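thread: overnight batch results

M.L. [08:02]
morning all. the overnight job finished for the chain we discussed friday. pasting input first so we're all looking at the same thing
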Amino acid sequence: MRKRAVLALAAACLSLAVSTAQAAPERLAIYMTVGGPLEVVRDGAASTVLLGGRVIHQAMGASLTAQSYMSVGDPSDGYDAVLIRHGVGNAECPITYDLIAVGADKTYAVAPDVNKCSRILNINVDGDKLLLVTEKQNGRTEIIEYNDKQRRRGDAKP
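M.L. [08:03]
and the structure it wrote out:
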């Protein structure tokens, strides 16, 4: 009888430990940007992007995955950009990407659905511009330019 009680208690503790471990947030990626560490974290059904420990972007019910990281512009006045795959697609728009730009002054900008449902073929840097070469569903290519004006003019968050 006592042996069963000990086994039941051990099973209960193991079950509690497993459920606690499943509930813990999972860090998927971390990048050292000019504005501090940028982390992608999954916690249950939510995915969150943190900059220096602060939430700057979140998706409920969809996973966010860091795909590309690049430094853009002059090292003294440039910015870092992280392309985030936003896994919410459907048949008409299977994959969307959000772009996060971070400056040394800790300001940031989030450009949601930057690829406009097009497939990303290539990413190029031209001075302080980030160029996304995409392919539309009809097969035509398009170049989408991100030039960091949103973050620089003060619309971005510090």
